[in-house]
Every structure is written in structure tokens, then in C-alpha cells.
Amino acid sequence: MTILGIDPGTATTGFGVLKKHKDGLEVIDYGCINTTPDMCDADRLKTIYNQLNKIIKCHRPKVLAIERLFFFKNLKTVMPVSQAKGIVLLTAARKKIPVYEYTPLQMKMAIAGYGRAEKKQVQKMIQVQLNLEEKPKDKDKRKDDATDALGIAMCYALDTRNIKTI
Fold first, then answer.
1. Is the CB of residue 70 less than 8 Å from the CB of residue 11?
2. Are 158 and 112 in contact (CB under 8 A)?
């Protein structure tokens, strides 16, 4: 089964593609969909939509796991992230891909065994559990969103309940 994990954002949307085998998990692809600050909101969302469609066409995931937004201190951050998440949900719905949501706490619990684990600890556990030589990052080596997306995909793969939330 192929799982697409998404960490939504308008500046950077992380994605991670895992294949679940009876023997474990295999990393197929990961990276980030990046937009630039000089783009208007509509162009940023269009870029996310177009790139996500390419990823789905290439890998044909059976499910999509996405980070659930549940708490933000900054309203300026939550609105664009919600817009990007809406684009991801629309794309999945149009492709008839079931969507599962996981909070950062659920992801940390599944990956590190502790819901309040430090981000660096979770990233290291993802690297170790997926047998990666180095911590996954976007091609430009600046963003951790790809790691978070792989973690969200792992959360689905490790969740025996797999309760559809959307």
C-alpha cells in the first residue's frame, strides 16, 4: 500500500511517500512543494495544487495522511496553513483518495513513544526507523517539512485503527 503524508503550508508543503510492505516501510519519495513570498495567495495555492497532482499521478497513493491543525498561537500562520490544507483535501477528494488526520502529538507518540518529544528526537527516530542515511530534508536542505510529512505517513502506517476522519 502506498501512503502519501502531507505537512501543509503555503510557503512550504512537505510531502512523503511510503510503501507499506508486510516486512515494513519503504521510503519512495519525499520533498517540499515550495512557493515564494512574491507570489500572490492564489498563485501559491495553484502551485500546491499542480505539484500535488503530479505527485499523486506519479505515485498513485491509496491513502493520504495529513497533519491536523488544532492549535496555533498566531492567526497570521493558521489562515494560510488552513488554505493549503483545503487545497490538499480538495485534491484528495477529486482523486477519491481517503484522508486521515493526525495531530503533531499523535505523530510524536507513534514515532517516539512520547507525545511531547522534542522535534529533533522525532526527526532522528524517523531517520532511524526508515533506514535513511541522513535526516530527510527538501532538496535545498533548509526545510524540515519533508521529515514531518514522512512522520505523518508513518503515523498512518503504524495506526492499526486507521479511523477515517475526513
1. no
2. no
Asked if residues 145 and 32 have their Cβ atoms less than 8 Å apart, the reply is: yes
Total count of domains within the chain: 1
For 50, the domain range is 2-158
Is position 165 within any domain?
no
CATH of the domain at 10: 3.30.420.10
**Structure confidence at residue 72 as a pLDDT band (50, 70, 90):** low
Q: What is the pTM of this model?
A: 0.90
pLDDT mean across residues, the chain? 88
Catalytic positions, written as ranges: 7, 67, 145
- Of 7-11, 58-62, 103-107, 140-144, the range with the lowest mean pLDDT is 140-144
CB within 8 Å of 99: residues ≥ 6 apart: 63, 64, 65, 66, 89, 92, 93, 164, 165, 166
